[in-house]
Amino acid sequence: MTNDNNQNNQDANLDTQDLNEILKVRRTKLFELQEQQKDPFKVVKYDVTHSTKYISENFDNMEGQFVSLAGRIMSKRGMGKVSFSDIQDREGRLQIYVKNEEVGAETYQYFKKYDIGDWIGVKGEVFRTQKGEISIKAKEIILLSKSLQPLPEKWHGLKDIDLRYRQRYVDLIVNPDVRKTFTIRSKIIKAIRSFLDDKGFLEVETPLLNTIPGGAAAKPFVTHHNTLDIDLYLRIAPELYLKRLIVGGLEKVYEMGRMFRNEGMSIKHNPEFTLMEVYEAYTDYKGMMELTESLITKVAQEVLGTTKISYQGQEIDLAPPWDRITMIDAVKKYADVDFNEIKSDDEARKIAKEKLLNVKNNATKGEVLNLIFEEFVEEHLVQPTFIMDYPVEVSPLTKKKPDDPSLTERFELFITSREMANAYSELNDPIDQKERFLSQVKKREAGDEEANMMDEDFILALEYGMPPTGGLGIGIDRLIMLLTDSYSIRDVLLFPTMKPRD
After folding, report:
1. What is the spatial distance between Cα 393 and Cα 364, in angstroms, rounded to a whole number?
2. In this structure, are 235 and 106 located in the same domain?
3. Is there a contact between 330 and 373 (Cβ–Cβ < 8 Å)?
4. Residues 178 and 146 in one domain
């Protein structure tokens, strides 16, 4: 049998060692344990009384107490009949002190053969070593699960980034910052729900399988239901279902869940992602603006303890009030084009071409305005900024502005040059809505796979009457990226979409 310290050295230098030999040694150890009726995989339960974090943070009250904890072995240091090991549970690490005389010769010999990565249960006394380290003086040790794969010593930067996403389970084991990110993610989601629940919103669930993919401009995933013999689409947004609930009188509803869009992938996009949509009767997009500002500010303060954060080296101040500017004024400010002075589609297309933009021959003034905004303005929107009053052509579900029907009562929130939220004064005129759907259908027939389909049942719902309503959508993953200082959306998804390896 390979010496314990030598085995640990092998585990820490996989780049220079024969992995097959390491795997063989670990399996041999397992077979020997099984032959000796010590099979760790037959252990079905272990009672844990304390976590590593609790013991560390409450040492003054815990010293001398007998505790039971469990975790994964992350290091071992042997000195004859005394050994030290660090074990890791969900909340942190703690040293255990293992002495031959305390646990018994047989247990000690078994412990010396345990590997980095093995799961163990430990019962013992809380104490502080002569060097001042909080530890557990082991009285009993049991092997709870055998790790047949060696752990990497550490990830080597971007070289292993693909492997980190593919093997998130290993990433979580060896990278404390990753565990922290996903712990924060959970707290953020909990804080969002608490905020909305306290304001009287009702959390609901709507179908993931849709006969018509509506509520956003996106290409859907298609599947087939065998019994009904019909194609179904994974939802791209819950909007049209949630507004049906407003029609039904629920008045304040929200849903947070997975959406699916068959589109490109980038540091900002994953084919499946978490979106939250909120709808409130008797308010408008300005009401949604206030809700968005207070929600994000409250969540940051509650989870992070501050509204001043750093994202990829940029200092971001989330304290209200946030900047508010119309799209036309933003384009005038950053692109030096005043769309209030542009009178025709031809004139707008001419300006776009002068700015070397690829614009369609039938592009409208509103579409060109949106294009110039995306190309020349978004990059400047680092601090929280509400961009208001979008063109009607890119807002098929939004109320028109009473004083300018070419624009809509819509805003998008930008932080760090990225869209974080999208909100409308919701269109509740069924006749106008049907006309806009027909316009979208024409785009779809012309080859635009992201254009909306006609949804006759939604039109029928609106005909029963929907009160004035404000609607809001927030990309939860992007918000979590911001609040955890994560570069890529894959850094905040436990299992991002990956192309299978050959």
Report:
1. 8
2. no
3. yes
4. no
Which phi and psi angles does 476 have, rounded to 5°? Answer: -65, -40
Contact 427, 398 (CB under 8 A): yes
Q: State the residue range of the domain holding 433.
A: 173-322+383-492
pLDDT classification of 15: cutoffs 50, 70, 90: low
- CATH number, domain of 429, equals 3.30.930.10
Task: Count CA atoms within 13 Å of residue 458 on its CB side.
Answer: 25
The number of distinct structural domains making up the chain is 2
Give 313-350 pLDDT, tens digit per residue.
Answer: 999 999 999 999 999 999 999 999 999 999 999 999 99
Residue-wise pLDDT for 32-64, tens only, equals 999 999 999 999 999 999 999 999 999 999 999
Q: Which tens digits make up the pLDDT trace of 457-484?
A: 999 999 999 999 999 999 999 999 999 9
203 and 276 assigned to the same domain? yes
Cα distance between residue 254 and residue 262, in whole Å: 24
Q: Which residue has the tokens 């507004």?
A: 243
Q: Residue 144 carries which side chain, given as an amino acid letter? A: L
Residues 78 and 108 reside in one and the same domain: yes
111 and 256 part of one domain: no
Asked whether 389 and 327 are in contact (CB, 8 A), the reply is yes
